[in-house]
């Protein structure tokens, strides 16, 4: 790996990102069980309560927790900044998001006003505290790399979609669902996928692909212009969605063109790696490129069919693209965190990064996830696919949880032993 440009001395405590990573697969298991006892006809309606619950358990419980955990680490390492009181911020946000997400789930299912108001409070404060801390830390960065710019823009989108989410929850708590509610909900969902998750992935890829995979670096046009162009397209799409919905197709074409170009670029760069060794994380990146391409084209195609295929677009882009990248990165980040922190404490006789996760289990987890995603797509036409697909997803998330806990277990058991070297003499006091 190439660690050039990293500020590893700024890394936060390992507990800050790990608490988010460990919870994500648990929410995945919960999603699988909810899908197991749902029906595809209900889930096809994106505005049904069951669909909203499942979507937010995925977007907040899985995507949100993984992305926030990764950002607590990457902002410090890639940007070289200290997020103020990161341990306190991470602990508070983690707890608030847990309480908020469960309050939202039960509040929506039970139509309980109090729970929905609590959900607004906890989710809003949980997200805004950690996002605000990150943006505050970033403003002190003197040298903005392409990755830092991408993460900054993604966090701005995150800030805005959180405010939209609080507004939408307020509508449900007061039973005040107007036409504006559905417009905001549409912007909220698109900006969450493309503005927050999509731009964050692109920004991180600028640094991660050359670092972890020794892939060719991105061209300057990609680094300097793509995030700006996508952001511009998303704002144009928002304006058209509010004032001229019949013309949103043009903004969609703008946004999807650059995401499709990114997917193609990623595929090409993996083909040009200096050390073309394949592992499950490479499979995830390649699968994500394929799903993103299919999902982008289907999002355009869906415009001509009154959004009949919008749920399938969500599966392709949300599950196939975003989730694949998230899980692929987890298999890199978690072992790296454990190895780095143990090394920094003076432990030298520890497993390497590649030895901390069972490769057979990670491959099985990948296979089951891919089968579940394909099955979910078919289940909208043949409902009998929903049960086996849900079971595949549950087992996949359970294996993922084991694969995350395995390196964490190595960390805790190793900490009980005496270090090979006493590194305390080199610490700053």
| Span of the ends, CA to CA | 31 Å
Task: Using the CA coordinates, give the radius of gyration.
Answer: 21 Å
Give the topology string: H per helix, E per strand. Answer: HHHHHHHHHHHHH
- CATH H-level name... which superfamily? Cytochrome c oxidase-like, subunit I domain
Which second-level CATH architecture applies? Answer: Up-down Bundle
- What composes the largest sheet? none
How much of the polypeptide forms β-strand, as a percent range? under 5%
Portion of residues within helices? over 70%
What number of structural domains do the residues give? 1
Detailed description of the structure:
The protein contains 13 helices and no strands. With 429 residues, the protein is mainly α. The protein has a single domain (8-410), classed as Cytochrome C Oxidase, Chain A (Up-down Bundle). The longest helix is centred in the middle third of the chain and has 35 residues, at 179-213. Mean pLDDT is 89; it is low at 425-429.
Key structural traits:
mainly alpha
List the helices and strands and how they pair.
Layout: H1 15-36, H2 40-44, H3 49-79, H4 86-110, H5 113-138, H6 146-173, H7 179-213, H8 220-243, H9 248-271, H10 280-302, H11 310-344, H12 359-379, H13 386-415
């Amino acid at each position: 790996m190439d660690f050039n440009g990293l500020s590893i001395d700024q890394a936060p405590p390992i507990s800050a990102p790990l608490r988010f990573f460990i919870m994500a697969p648990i929410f995945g298991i919960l999603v699988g069980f909810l899908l197991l006892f749902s029906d595809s006809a209900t889930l096809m309606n994106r505005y049904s309560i069951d669909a909203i619950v499942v979507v937010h358990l995925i977007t907040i419980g899985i995507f949100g927790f993984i992305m926030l955990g990764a950002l607590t680490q990457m902002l410090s390492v890639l940007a070289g900044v200290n997020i103020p009181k990161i341990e306190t911020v991470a602990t508070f946000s983690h707890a608030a998001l847990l309480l908020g997400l469960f309050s939202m789930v039960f509040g929506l299912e039970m139509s309980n006003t109090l729970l929905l108001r609590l959900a607004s409070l906890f989710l809003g404060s949980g997200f805004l505290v950690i996002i605000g801390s990150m943006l505050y830390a970033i403003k002190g960065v003197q040298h903005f790399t392409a990755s830092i710019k991408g993460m900054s823009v993604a966090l701005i989108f995150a800030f805005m979609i959180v405010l939209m989410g609080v507004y939408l929850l307020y509508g449900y708590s007061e039973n005040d669902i107007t036409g504006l509610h559905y417009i905001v909900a549409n912007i909220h969902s698109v900006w969450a996928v493309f503005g927050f998750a999509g731009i964050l992935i692109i920004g991180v890829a600028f640094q991660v692909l050359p670092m972890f995979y020794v892939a060719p670096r991105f061209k300057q046009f990609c680094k300097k212009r793509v995030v700006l162009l996508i952001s511009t397209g998303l704002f144009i799409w928002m304006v058209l969605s509010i004032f001229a919905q019949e013309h949103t197709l043009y903004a969609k074409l703008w946004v999807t063109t650059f995401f499709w170009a990114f997917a193609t670029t990623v595929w090409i760069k993996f083909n040009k790696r200096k050390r073309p060794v394949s592992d499950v994380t490479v499979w995830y990146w390649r699968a994500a490129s394929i799903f993103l391409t299919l999902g982008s084209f289907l999002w355009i195609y869906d415009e001509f069919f009154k959004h009949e295929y919008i749920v399938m677009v969500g599966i392709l882009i949300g599950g196939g693209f975003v989730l694949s990248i998230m899980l692929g990165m987890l298999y890199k980040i978690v072992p790296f965190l454990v190895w780095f922190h143990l090394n920094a404490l003076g432990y030298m006789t520890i497993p390497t990064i590649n030895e901390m996760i069972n490769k057979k289990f990670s491959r099985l987890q990948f296979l089951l996830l891919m089968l579940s995603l394909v099955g979910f797509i078919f289940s909208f036409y043949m409902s009998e696919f929903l049960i086996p697909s849900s079971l595949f997803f549950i087992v996949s998330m359970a294996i993922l949880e084991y694969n995350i806990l395995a390196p964490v277990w190595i960390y805790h058991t190793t900490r009980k032993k005496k270090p090979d070297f006493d590194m305390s003499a080199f610490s700053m006091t």
